[in-house]
Amino acid sequence: MHPDHLQSLKAPTTGHDRLVELSRENGRLRQEALYFRGLSREVTPLLAVLQYHINELSSTVRKCNEKIEKANAQWEVEESSRVE
Fold first, then answer.
1. Suppose 17 and one of 2, 12, 24, 63 were both cysteines; which one would form an S-S bond, judging by CB atoms 3.0 to 4.6 Å apart?
2. pLDDT by residue (tens digit) across 15-70?
3. How far, in Å, CA of 37 to CA of 76, rounded?
4. What is the 3-state secondary structure (H, E, C) of the chain?
5. For residues 30 and 43, what is the distance between their CA atoms, to the nearest angstrom?
6. Which residues contact 49 (CB under 8 A, 6 or more apart)?
7. In the chain, what is the straight-line distance between the N-terminal and C-terminal CA atoms, in Å?
8. What is the number of domains present in the chain?
9. Is 17 exposed, middle or buried (0-12, 13-18, 19+ CB in 10 A)?
10. Which 3 state secondary structure label does DSSP give 1?
11. For the chain, how long is the longest CA-to-CA vector?
12. Residue 47 phi, psi dihedral angles, 5° rounding
């Protein structure tokens, strides 16, 4: 079946039916908005904590990479002195 035909089968037959359908949809959307508003209130305070931990992790990874680079450079120096 063609999508337009299926849509016409689903469409309300009267203005009253359409009004009822839109009222239900409006109620569903209000509930959805309340849900996301509440979720936002719960999550927003956690963002600062999350940002702090992201910064700390980034700093730790940076320090670790610096130590690895230093150890690799030292290894190369020692390895080249053994070969010569």
1. 12
2. 999 999 999 999 999 999 999 999 999 999 999 999 999 999 999 999 999 999 99
3. 57
4. CCHHHHHHHHCCCCHHHHHHHHHHHHHHHHHHHHHHHHHHHHHHHHHHHHHHHHHHHHHHHHHHHHHHHHHHHHHHHHHHHHHC
5. 20
6. none
7. 81
8. 1
9. exposed
10. coil
11. 94
12. -65, -40
pLDDT at 80: 86
Identity of the residue numbered 9 = L
- By residue range, what is the domain housing residue 67? 3-83
Q: For residue 11, which phi and psi values (nearest 5 degrees)? A: -65, 140
